[in-house]
Amino acid sequence: MNLQQLHPDFAEEFLATPVYADRIWQDIPATRAFDELMREKIAAELAPVESVITSDHLVPGSAGEPDVSVRLYAPANHSAGLPALLWIHGGGYVMGSMLGDDYMVKKMVEAVGCAVVSVDYRLAPEHPFPAPLEDCYAALNWLFSQGQTLQLDSTRIAIGGISAGGGLAAALALLARDRGEFAPVFQMLLCPMIDDNNSTPSSHRITDQRTWNRHCNIKGWAAYLGQQGTDSPYAAAARATDLSGLPPAYIPVGSLDLFVDENAHYAQRLEAAGVPVEFSVYPGGVHAFEFIYPLADVSARARDSHYRALKRALNIIA
Question: Is 206 left (phi over 0), alpha (psi -120 to 50) or beta?
Fold first, then answer.
């Protein structure tokens, strides 16, 4: 990675980031705990969100699977008929949690004015594919089936996530299309982790240990796909040969993200299949920069773009 290409809004902060990426795999439980602490530290430095209410729920798992914890977020004093987003956290399929994304989701609800259901899916390597995806499907099924009870508009339900969460959201869109039980209206894929081949130029180029890099990506995919591996297109959305009939997609990514090439290719294939796509590349942006460096001006602009895209998709009038 050419460090001179880093966006100046957060370059100094990035360069001061401790080297950590390859250490993730030495002790995954300890890394998870450290990741949660870092997320709490970032949130503690930001203004609290007091205009959003939450409630926790345990939803039925898919057949033969355990129940799934979710958290429902909504604007305080909201009226019935809110559109909703199913949010899937990132973490390379091995880290992250519903609680870790709590502040991020509250800010999203505050900015967009929709409800969000955040899903606490099981993590690899303890729970490889398809367990995390089935947890997300169960949460989406609950969101659609309980929409009226939750005072939501079941005709305006989107799915979205970041990094591995974006990969799960892309796979969930495929799975929902093929099972035919319900139809999300939009997929918000923030720098999604969707291609286990690790063969693009950008996947080779990003090796810096201050960000999610090639070594991390190879290890993350190995953990998610399991010892036996799988050929399923639902495990890695880039494998899917038929992308027709999917909901419109929004895919933003940084130019210094190892996923930029696979994201661009997926966007091109979606468009070729007749799926409306909004794809954008942020010059100088590293992986998930808009949330890792939240105070940078470019990060604020990127988040605002995400929120506007979701508002348009859910037909929310500002």
Answer: beta
Instruction: With CA atoms as reference, report the closest residue to 254 among 279, 280, 286, 213.
Output: 286
Q: Is 311 exposed, middle or buried (0-12, 13-18, 19+ CB in 10 A)?
A: middle
Helix axes 102-112, 297-313, angle to 10 degrees: 60
Over range 135-161, report the average pLDDT: 95
Q: Which residue has the higher pLDDT, 264 or 5?
A: 264
- As a residue count, the chain comes to 318
pTM: 0.95
DSSP notation for the chain = --GGGS-TTTHHHHHTSPP-GGGGGG-HHHHHHHHHHHHHHHHHTS----SEEEEEEEEPPSTTS--EEEEEEEETTPPS-EEEEEEE--STTTS--TTTTHHHHHHHHHHH--EEEEE----TTTS-TTHHHHHHHHHHHHHHHTTTTTTEEEEEEEEEEETHHHHHHHHHHHHHHHH-S---S-EEEES----TT--SHHHHH---TTS--HHHHHHHHHHHH-TT----TTTSGGG-S--TTPPPEEEEEETTSTTHHHHHHHHHHHHHTT--EEEEEETT--TTHHHHSTTSHHHHHHHHHHHHHHHHHTT---
Tell me the per-residue pLDDT of 23-78, one tens digit each, with 9 for 90 and over.
Answer: 778 888 888 888 788 777 777 777 788 899 999 999 999 888 899 999 999 999 88
**Which residues are identified as catalytic?**
163, 257, 287
